[in-house]
Amino acid sequence: MKKSERVKKTTAKAGIRQENEKIILKAAESVFAEYGFRGATTSMIAEQANIPKANLHYYFPTKEALYRQVVDNIFNIWLQAADSFDDCDDPVEALSRYIEKKMDISRDNPMGSKVWANEIIQRAPVIQDYLETTLKDWTESRAVIIRRWIAQGKINPIDPQYLLYMIWSTTQHYADFNHQIETLNGGTPLSDAQYRVAKDNVIEIILTGIGAVQRRRNSLLQDNSPKDQQEKSDRA
Amino acid sequence: MKKSERVKKTTAKAGIRQENEKIILKAAESVFAEYGFRGATTSMIAEQANIPKANLHYYFPTKEALYRQVVDNIFNIWLQAADSFDDCDDPVEALSRYIEKKMDISRDNPMGSKVWANEIIQRAPVIQDYLETTLKDWTESRAVIIRRWIAQGKINPIDPQYLLYMIWSTTQHYADFNHQIETLNGGTPLSDAQYRVAKDNVIEIILTGIGAVQRRRNSLLQDNSPKDQQEKSDRA
DNA sequence: TTATTTCCTGACCATTTGGTCAAGTTAACG
DNA sequence: CGTTAACTTGACCAAATGGTCAGGAAATAA
Predict the structure, then answer these.
(1) Cβ–Cβ gap A208/B204 under 8 Å
(2) ipTM of the complex as predicted
(3) What is the model's pLDDT at position A214?
(4) Confidence (pLDDT) at A5
(5) Would you say residue B176 lies in a domain?
(6) Partner residue opposite A184 with nearest CB, options B139, B205, B220
(7) Same domain? A23 vs A109
(8) What pTM was computed for the model?
(9) Chain-centre distance for alpha carbon A71
(10) What is the CATH number of the domain that holds B33?
(11) Residue B55 phi/psi, 5° resolution?
(12) Which residues in chain B have their CB less than 8 angstroms from residue A219's CB?
């Protein structure tokens, strides 16, 4: 009988599990994003992760367990974005920050957004619970804030839920439909500068659209963002 | 099978093919919408259509042929919406009509929108050609119109492509994410009245957002849509 | 009527799929 | 060193999948 059920080390062997799980999760995210749960296969994921399929099943016993883990990570990112919409008296500040955050996430983690989209399209077999609890509560709490802005005359009277849908859809579109956007952009991804403009446009149109700011013709940007949008180091 | 054919075609046999293809295509659309091309199975589609799988393959030799047909139908609907964005001097009229049309399509044909979303997420294996030709040309022609409105001082200077993305994403969101919307709506779909409000909100925010109309606080609606919006025939 | 075309379907097949397993290899620890 | 626990993987399996086919049913044409 084995007497030493040791606690995991922090040495070579110990890091292997952590490392491999990370590699597998990343591969899984991109395959699930592209093909959805049913359409993805464990072989594809293993291949993407550059490991034998049997090894994948050593770390994640079932496809479903792996998927759940992926979805969980994505939900955490969602929560992170949600936090940036804080209870602030100034709608311009609160919404600008939130939209900007969501746009950043779309750019930095497009696969996650696609997995989420697939989940919803498939009627949320895994995250339905989140939708009914965490998401619903959060949405209602933000609706309260938005209604207060309306009552204070800071924005036009619009129904909070539809404003949120507009923010979600517009920002996530840059992740979920990035292939279409890229195609229309001549086959190349939006540059950093273009993405900056896209972001500013989204913020501008929504904030103006709800009457939070009074934009007049010929002034695209106010000062909602620093001026450093110029060259911004094109990434390859 | 059923003897529920009330409307006889010219001859019984003649109408059978047409009728069955329609049933199969409808079933295929909803299954492809939910699971994507890879995730969908011909058995699922056959079951949804209430016919044996072998019969499905009698009408559509391969899964891919069936999928292409589905996608083709959807593209035609897209074209139909595209037509409603006409070369009009008034941005309010042109955009209101276009957005309204897109919202109606999202409501009447949510499955089609989801198939499209899946296609794009999967990098458009089937419609890439459309994206590069028809869609690109259309987008550029609309950009010209939008730039003219800007030059004429009718709307704020925004980049046309990002405006189009916002319209697409916002309107299609009501189809692609209708499950999430329904969940947040307490488990029931948006009523006709709610959908009407959603539509008006979208039109209002975007038109105001680009400076096409000067909305002030406390006046949600103007008369942005024609009179015939009266009852709109409550479905179910 | 008979002949012909169209439609229908249970049974079948080759391939792919999620998942297992036993036999290894590698690293930690005494 | 030897023992042990963690990691690796080729080979395998049962179920699911896309697709076929032969034979039958139904409508139309002759």
Answers:
(1) no
(2) 0.88
(3) 83
(4) 37
(5) yes
(6) B139
(7) no
(8) 0.88
(9) 11
(10) 1.10.10.60
(11) -70, -40
(12) 156
A152, A221: one domain: yes
D19 C1' – B53 CA distance, angstroms?
10
Q: Which nucleotides of D are covered by protein (CB under 7 A)?
A: 4-11, 16-22, 26-28
B233 located within any domain:
no
How many Cβ pairs closer than 8 A exist between chain A and B?
205
**CB-CB under 8 Å, A181 with B136:** no
CATH number of the domain to which B191 belongs: 1.10.357.10
User: What's the gap in Å between the CA of A55 and the closest CA on chain B?
Assistant: 24
B95 contacts on A by Cβ (under 8 Å)? none
Helix (H) / strand (E) element for B171: namely helix B160-176
Domain shared by B84 and B191, yes or no: yes
Q: If you search the block for the tokens 């010219």, which residue do you land on?
A: B10
Structural domain range at position A55: 12-61
pLDDT score of A222 more than 90: no
Q: Is the dihedral of CA B22, B24, B26, B28 positive or negative?
A: negative
The answer to whether residues A92 and A35 belong to one domain is no
For A196, the token pair is 């900056």
Q: How many domains does chain A have?
A: 2
Nearest CB neighbour to A38, from listed B39, B114, B162: B39
Pick B202's closest partner by Cβ from A166, A168, A204. A166
How long is chain A? 236
Q: Which residues of chain B lie closer than 8 angstroms to A122, CB-CB?
A: 34-35
- Same domain? A56 vs A95: no
Single-letter amino acid, residue B42? T
- pLDDT score recorded for residue B216: 53
- Taking Cα atoms as reference points, which of B44, B112, B52, B107 lies closest to residue B78? B112
CA distance to A59, A167, B98, per residue, from B156 (Å): 54, 20, 19
* pLDDT interval class at A235 (50, 70, 90): very low
The verdict on residue B79 lying in a domain is yes
